[in-house]
Amino acid sequence: MIKLLNLNKSFFMGDEEIKAIDNVNFEVKKGEYVSIIGPSGSGKSTLMNILGLLDVPDSGEYILDGVNTKDLTDGELAKLRNKKIGFVFQNFNLLSKLTAWENVQVPLIYQGISSKESKKIAFEYLEKVGLKGRENHLPKQLSGGQQQRVAIARALCCKPEIILADEPTGALDSKTGVEIIEMFKKLNEEGQTIILITHDNGIAQKAKKIVRISDGKLYDEEAIENG
Ligand SMILES: Nc1ncnc2c1ncn2[C@@H]1O[C@H](COP(=O)(O)OP(=O)(O)O)[C@@H](O)[C@H]1O
Ligand SMILES: [Mg+2]
């Protein structure tokens, strides 16, 4: 489903080159649940932005469902992103003036679904993430964990092929974090492909496959354990 081949991305600070992604090769198959773990500054968000088609690499290939993304225009990339990828961020990224159900409705409206139908779908997905009865709450009237559930409902409602979650428990207390991770596990058991990015070992261990990132280079767990 996802294939990265010899991927590179650098940032420049004056004359200094920072290799945020350093010759990465990586594959994710349909139905997998992969954690990418690494310390702050190791390149996790840069990798997530590339995987999520929010940024492009300097060199190398990113093949998504058989499509080489370097052949696509910005418009085509945006379309592919809306169709295939659901994002979950550390800070939820909810719109503060919209209620829970209106937040979930936003991407559905972008997809051209009618307001009546999209409201119905938003309510269904809020129920799925355990927020029945909270549909009309504003983000500030919800706890952090509940806000993250709204964000997960918003990511799921367009039936994305892949959920990309960047530090989804980073702003939550550990008990709430575990609840969110349990939800990802359940979604994966239902067939959802998930890539979870974290600096937290305990969180990473819940995934079926763990990959480490350090200074922009990827290593799978086995390779590390075997030296
Ligand atoms: N827009 C940018 N400009 C300059 N340097 C950047 C930029 N984005 C990321 N970096 C650098 O690239 C490296 C990887 O950053 P990032 O992907 O955000 O790491 P992580 O998410 O693992 O904390 C860091 O050294 C960071 O300072
Ligand atoms: Mg980051």
Explain this structure to me?
- The structure is a single chain.
- With 227 residues, the protein is of the alpha/beta class.
- The chain has one domain (2-94, 155-225): 3-Layer(aba) Sandwich (Rossmann fold).
- The chain has 8 helices and 10 strands.
- It has helices at 44-51, 74-84, 100-110, 115-128, 144-156, 174-189, 201-204, 221-225; strands spanning 2-13, 16-28, 33-37, 59-64, 67-68, 85-89, 162-166, 193-198, 209-214, 217-220.
- The strands form 2 sheets. It has a 6-stranded mixed sheet with strand order 6-7-8-3-9-10, with helices on both faces. Strands 2-1-4-5 form a 4-stranded antiparallel sheet, with helices on one face.
- Strand 7 (162-166), helix 6 and strand 8 (193-198) form a beta-alpha-beta unit.
- The longest helix is centred in the C-terminal third of the chain and has 16 residues, at 174-189.
- Mean pLDDT is 93; it is low at 223-227.
